[in-house]
Design the sequence.
């Protein structure tokens, strides 16, 4: 999971990708022929093969049909979320499980990655420990509860006594995990920065002595 830190996706945060994803969502699980132009435009923005993207769409339709609950999003409150970095990170986790583009992983559960319940949900920062936790927490819960028992559930680290089917489960352990990882990375970066500065200063002094100045 640590390799997920700093992940980015072509087309992310583009107003055009946001608009196209919202349009595809509003069309519902439409037959490919009805949304073919829309699919091609999204594929081009993502920089992926159009035919492969259409195949992913067929998988998406099957997953949507088999889901025990259909995801939705209040676009009046979260109109800039779909296609954002966080949205596509969530989509990538779901997409990796089913072998589809992050766009379709995100559309299966459009609020995936938003932090908090219902109307109080908000979009976290892209380097926020709570944000990284929210992606895996939501993905684990969706896979277990909505897609037929796949995945670990909300307690994706397996550290909580509460049932992993509950969204309350895994919160403390998950956030603590990402805080430790991000803090360790920060300390490591600071150490390497200080070491590089000292090494550079040493090389300059050494060069100064060798030049006889």
Sequence:
């Amino acid at each position: 999971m640590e390799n997920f830190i700093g992940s980015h996706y072509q087309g992310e945060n583009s107003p055009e990708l946001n608009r196209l994803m919202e349009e595809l969502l509003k069309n519902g699980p439409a037959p490919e022929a009805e949304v073919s132009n829309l699919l091609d435009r999204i594929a081009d923005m993502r920089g992926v093969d159009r035919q492969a993207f259409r195949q992913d769409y067929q998988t998406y339709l099957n997953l949507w049909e088999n889901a025990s609950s259909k995801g939705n999003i209040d676009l009046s409150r979260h109109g800039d979320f779909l296609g954002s970095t966080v949205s596509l990170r969530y989509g990538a986790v779901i997409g990796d499980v089913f072998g589809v583009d992050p766009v379709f992983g995100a559309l299966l559960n459009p609020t995936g990655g938003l932090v908090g319940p219902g109307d109080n949900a908000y979009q976290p920062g892209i380097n926020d420990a709570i944000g990284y936790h929210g992606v895996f927490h939501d993905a684990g819960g969706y896979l277990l509860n909505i897609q037929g028992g796949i995945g670990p559930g909300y307690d994706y680290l397996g550290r909580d006594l509460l049932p992993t089917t509950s969204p309350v489960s895994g919160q403390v352990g998950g956030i603590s995990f990402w805080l430790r990882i991000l803090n360790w990375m920060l300390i490591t970066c600071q150490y390497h920065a200080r070491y590089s500065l000292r090494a550079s200063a040493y090389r300059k002094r050494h060069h100064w002595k060798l030049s006889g100045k």
